């Protein structure tokens, strides 16, 4: 029998020794397991801990394409979910799977919910996480935008450019950090100023490891160091000496794709598309309308 059939057979017996269990997988691959049972449970290669104080409201499910949703609540503890991790955004968009499981025999279980974390609030030593079902993804607009700038992200499948190629990234320690959005580097002379503008900064070590941000500005500072500013501050505090990776920037223009990256074959924009004003141009009054020369 399948796991679900085993659970149903157990429930048909009239004695239900069931509990709920949740697995939370962050985008960096870290997995957390929780259960509302009074002892730990283990299955699917995950240990579901009972000492986290996690609870959840009743799951609201609907037929059709309506979005299933629920909410999970729990205490913030150093051994489970830490407040600084939530503040840093490490749980944003994390995948969530919920089971109904026979705690006396975990082979009897059934997935009741699969989705991701939406809005996440914290305060007074606890957190409240909105859980959104898989049908929430169907509400996102899809399709291709026809525009002059490239619609791909540098290094993604559409772009196809390898951002780990020599000359297009830098890894090294940061010498100073201001307001978690302005980074200074001792020597980036091999890269011309502006090379990393519109690129990405990724923190590789320290308290902010795994966090990243889009680069707004890349310029020489008054003290001769290289200054990299982000559009938004990181949600954790890097320290001087932390290792950082800088990835070259792309302004989405056809000329940049051709001259800076030599990747014009994968350009995802339409550089020859007419401007918006072209739509409002009146038809010509010339007698010759064949498209040939007027001479």
Describe what this molecule looks like in 3D.
This is DUF2163 domain-containing protein. InterPro entries: Phage_phiJL001_Gp84, Phage_phiJL001_Gp84_C. Pfam families: Phage_BR0599 (PF09356), Phage_phiJL001_Gp84_N (PF09931). The chain is 7% helix and 32% strand. The protein is mainly beta and 295 residues long. The chain has two domains: 3-139, Pnp Oxidase, Chain A; 169-247, Beta Barrel (Thrombin, subunit H), CATH 2.40.10. The chain has a seven-stranded antiparallel beta sheet with strand order 2-1-7-8-9-6-5. The protein has a seven-stranded antiparallel beta sheet with strand order 10-16-13-14-15-12-11, with no helix packed on it. Strands 3-4 form a two-stranded antiparallel ribbon. The chain is extended, with a radius of gyration of 27 Å.
